[in-house]
Specification:
8-stranded parallel beta sheet; PH-domain like
Length: 617
């Protein structure tokens, strides 16, 4: 190790984020040995036929892809085959990562069916989540990714996605595609991944691990699934590399795993880390299967210092780089599945934020489409430029530790998060998968108790009776209410780069009795001030808030609630998922009914006149 390298910064004590760690592969040989001894002592079936894990997983033992995958089905799964051993080993894995200085951990596991123990796939997921929940840690937050095995059928893949959706409110943050890269046809998983994306789940994929799984056809197929992160990225053709770079995909790199299992040629110094490091793609170092590989996350950071010459005193740029590796940007990036939430935050993720140039004064017609902008991935900037990586490590430690301490929940968002402490610029505005700024503001609002209670009908006798009645017209007199539901509305303010609450009240869909056009109107409680007023045009895309099943986000190209038509990004949150789905059904139905109407000539003129008149009330 070179003098003055990263190791001199005490890598183990530096806060780290682990995003690619397989649960079963992360069980240490010592833990497996303890389970093995316990099963032998009680005469458990099969345990006597297995060799000692300390021998089976000895550091000197060589593995490659051909011998690695059978290790799970024929050995590790045979030891961890009941609720007690699964829970015990999971706790040990959590403890090991915490002891290594990890402050945010995403474990991934394939839902297992263990007939001998009466454990269904769903029961297995429940068991792992329950164990994670019972592991009380003040320094580490743990979430779960459910993996689809390449050997799975299409039906099994859908089962994994359904489980991820069912348990995302308990800590499941996404879906992975993994398994023996020499097996399976990835095309059969297209629909399952599409369902995951449609429902707000984000995805990560093992990518180009082996020559057999690196054909241009397979890699293009996997990229067409629109993953948010990809792992390994070893045998990637040049044209595919350009696609990855253009998309700024988050890369999960596992140095020791790749070298030890001979997935890449040469030594550590020949690893593709250095190539990807220069592309601008966000990179996170990961362990993959630390129990088998034997290299902790701290050691992975020491390896890049040793073999790629990262020195603490080289330049402030390296300082920022080290912070970015350790904190995985803790900002609005396309890389992480992290989003910390403070108690006072309200979490809503926008699909797209309309830029200043897009704020055209257009009325809600068929021509008024929403526009999505794709920003560049921002670089990490320390609050004050440090002089060395030592200072960067200190900054990272305080930043990440504070984020972990304040973290109440997390969603698989592909965007960095962090405790609400300061405003950060958000240049990454892609699709409705979300912005971290927005997402940080919504998750803490998942408590239904924050919904304002409905006002009671209380009668007050007026002290003074007015003799003359004043007729007030709102424009709603000629409309029929087709939907009504209580909700809380938010509006994205681009200038200050934050969400502002617009109010709580009834969101309604009103259908005009003469022209049959439907608009969305929402008024605040008590004041009855209009906070949303626009037609439900066919071009609008109602997208789920990442990590929430009771929130929706959409762009209105011409909302007239403020008097003049303006492009607005709205987010709305309901008391529960059932109400949210009812809103979605009514919204889509209104779009379908409006589609033919807005294709008629002069629709723009009619819409402008009607909406402007109705907004003035």
């Amino acid at each position: 190790m070179e003098t003055g390298s990263l190791q001199s910064l005490d890598v183990k004590s530096m806060p780290k984020i682990e995003l690619h760690a397989h649960l079963s592969g992360s069980i240490s040989p010592t833990c497996l040995h303890e389970i093995w001894l316990s099963k032998r002592e009680c005469g458990a079936d099969g345990a006597a036929d297995l060799s000692d894990p300390l021998e089976e997983l000895a550091p000197s033992k060589a593995f490659d892809l051909a011998t690695f995958f059978p290790l799970f089905s024929k050995y590790i799964y045979e030891l961890c085959n009941d609720a007690e051993s699964i829970s015990y080993s999971t706790k040990a894995v959590l403890q090991d990562f915490q002891d290594d200085g990890v402050v945010y951990l995403e474990l991934r596991t394939t839902p297992r069916l263990i007939k001998s123990a009466g454990i269904t796939k769903e029961a297995y997921v429940q068991l792992v989540l329950s164990t994670i929940s019972s592991f009380k840690s003040s320094t580490m937050v743990t979430k779960l990714i459910l993996s689809i095995d390449r050997r799975n059928s299409e039906a099994e893949a859908f089962e994994v996605v359904d489980l991820a959706l069912r348990y995302r409110d308990r800590g499941v943050v996404g879906v992975d595609l993994c398994g023996d890269p020499t097996k399976g046809d990835v095309e059969i998983f297209r629909s399952a991944f599409a369902k995951a994306k449609e429902n707000g789940l984000n995805t990560t994929i093992h990518f180009a691990e082996a020559h057999q799984s690196s054909s241009e056809n397979e890699l293009l197929t996997l990229l067409s699934f629109k993953p948010d992160r990809i792992g390994h990225v070893i045998h990637v053709p040049d044209d595919i590399k350009q696609v990855i770079i253009e998309r700024k995909l988050g890369l999960e790199l596992c140095l020791s795993c790749n070298v030890k299992f001979k997935m890449t040629s040469g030594s550590f110094a020949d690893h593709h880390f250095m190539y990807w490091k220069g592309t601008g793609c966000p990179i996170t170092l990961c362990t993959d299967d630390v129990g088998v590989v034997g290299s902790t996350l701290s050691n992975e950071y020491a390896l890049i210092a040793e073999h790629f010459g990262l020195k603490p005193n080289e330049s402030p740029a390296y300082a920022r780089e080290i912070v970015s590796h350790l904190a995985i940007y803790l900002k609005l990036l396309h890389t992480t599945f992290i989003m910390s939430t403070a108690e006072e935050k309200v979490d809503i993720a926008p699909e797209a934020v309309v830029s200043t140039e897009e704020k055209k004064t257009v009325e809600p017609t068929a021509e008024a489409t929403t526009t999505e902008t794709k920003g560049e991935t921002p670089t990490v900037a320390a609050s004050s430029v440090v002089e060395s990586a030592t200072g960067a490590a200190s900054t990272a430690a305080s930043t990440v530790t504070a984020a972990a301490t304040n973290m109440q929940d997390s969603v698989f968002s592909m965007f960095g998060g962090g405790a609400k402490k300061e405003k950060v610029e958000d240049e990454d505005r892609g699709d409705n998968s979300g912005s971290a700024k927005a997402q940080k503001e919504a998750a803490a609002g998942e408590n239904p108790e924050d919904e304002a209670p409905e006002s009671e009908d209380v009668h007050f006798e007026p002290v003074i009776h007015l003799t003359d009645k004043v007729e007030v017209k709102t424009g709603e007199e000629v409309e029929e209410q087709t939907f009504k539901m209580r909700a809380k509305l938010f509006k994205f303010i681009r200038d200050s780069n934050e969400w502002k609450e617009r109010g709580t009240g009834d969101v309604r869909l009103l259908k005009h009795r003469e022209n049959n056009k439907t608009r969305l109107v929402m008024r605040r409680d008590k004041t009855l001030k209009v906070c949303a007023n626009h037609y439900v045009v066919p071009e609008m895309k109602l997208s789920p808030n990442v990590g929430s099943d009771r929130s929706w986000v959409w762009n209105a190209a011409a909302d007239v609630s403020e008097g003049e038509a303006e492009a607005v990004t709205f987010a709305i949150r309901f008391a529960n998922s059932e109400n949210a789905n009812l809103f979605k059904e009514a919204f889509i139905k209104a779009q379908q009914e409006n589609e033919a109407l807005f294709n008629k000539p002069a629709a723009a003129t009619e819409a402008s006149t009607e909406a402007s008149t109705e907004a003035s009330a």
